[in-house]
Design brief:
By secondary structure, this protein is an alpha+beta fold. The chain has ten helices and 13 strands. It has a six-stranded mixed β-sheet with strand order 7-6-3-4-5-11, covered by helices on one side. Strands 8-9-2-1-10 form a five-stranded antiparallel β-sheet, sandwiched between helices. It has a two-stranded antiparallel ribbon with strand order 12-13. A hairpin with a 6-residue loop joins strand 6 and strand 7. Helix 1 packs across helix 2.
């Protein structure tokens, strides 16, 4: 069954984004060889990023979610676009985590809670809109909610989670975001608040009923209109041309050093671990092109 992102409207007064990204999270686990804690962290980050990307307005818009919590997981990052093509990585995919007092893994301890969450929205302007706020827990969902409230003045309920099989593969990953719209009435707000305990059971409902069934279960008694169902995909858009530009940005001296000392360059994409080799002749050609451009300028 393919992953899915559903957009909905509650009582015509609150936007709902809900997703099942189990396949994406499993793909990330295999790609990065994550530990169980690492799998949960990446799964939660992918779910949050997928739902945030669903809020982008234009087809070419992009979004980056980055978490630097100071914990042993290192930097956690996911990048996506309005078409819900998502890629992700973490600094230490083999991060180990002690069991949590609540059961499961101590995700907050692995991520850390002494750093920041940063979200950049690239809408095609000269510079992306970037906001940064301190982490509140390192649990990811709570931190995204705090970011939306503090940086975008958008009160939201954000829940994300990843459940693992006994063999530590992904059995269930997804999340839900509820965002009251301007002018949302007190009755709708109260009805949403009454369902917070059900929202926290979203991972269980998802496993049993899928996304649509989970939403029907959580918002029973409210008017829920399904607006759109989309298919998110875990996909890296790296390529030789893009990495060639990365090499060009290093400058002639560093490229010369690669030619003389390494006889070429090897670049590994952080997001998909694909390795790209550039030989001496390609680097020499890059220097010539750079010199030609500088003369034209």
């Amino acid at each position: 069954m393919n992953d899915v992102l559903i957009k909905g409207l509650l009582n015509e007064e609150a936007a709902v984004y809900a997703c099942d990204v189990s396949e994406m999270a499993e793909c990330a686990r295999v790609t990065h060889g994550t530990s169980p804690a690492g799998t949960i962290i990446l799964g939660r980050t992918i779910a949050a990023t997928t739902m945030l990307c669903a809020t982008l307005k234009n087809p070419t818009d992009k979004l980056t979610l980055m978490i630097n919590g100071g914990g042993p997981s290192g930097t956690v990052m996911a990048v996506g676009n309005a078409g819900l093509r998502i890629k992700a990585y973490m600094g230490n995919p083999a991060v180990e985590s002690l069991p949590s007092d609540k059961g499961g893994f101590d995700i907050s301890g692995a991520v850390g809670s002494k750093g920041n969450i940063t979200i950049a929205r690239d809408t095609g302007l000269k510079e992306p809109y970037t906001g940064m706020v301190p982490l509140v827990s390192g649990e990811i969902g709570e931190d995204v909610a705090q970011y939306l409230l503090t940086s975008e003045q958008q009160p939201s309920i954000v829940y994300v989670n990843t459940w693992l099989e006994t063999d530590m593969s992904v059995v269930d990953a997804g999340g839900i975001i509820i965002r009251p719209l301007p002018g949302c009435g007190e009755q709708t707000l109260n009805e949403i608040e009454d369902r917070i305990s059900k929202v926290r059971n979203y991972a269980l409902y998802l496993l049993q009923d899928g996304v649509k069934g989970s939403l029907a279960r959580i918002f029973s008694g409210m008017h829920l209109k399904i607006l759109e169902a989309l298919t998110p995909v875990y996909e890296c858009d790296c390529g030789r041309e893009r990495l060639y530009k990365v090499l060009a940005s290093l400058g002639e001296n560093e490229i010369r050093d690669m030619i003389e000392n390494d006889k070429g360059a090897t670049i590994t994409c952080h997001f998909c671990n694909k390795v790209y080799e550039f030989d001496e002749s390609e680097l020499e050609e890059l220097i010539r092109h750079a010199g030609k451009r500088s003369k034209e300028i």
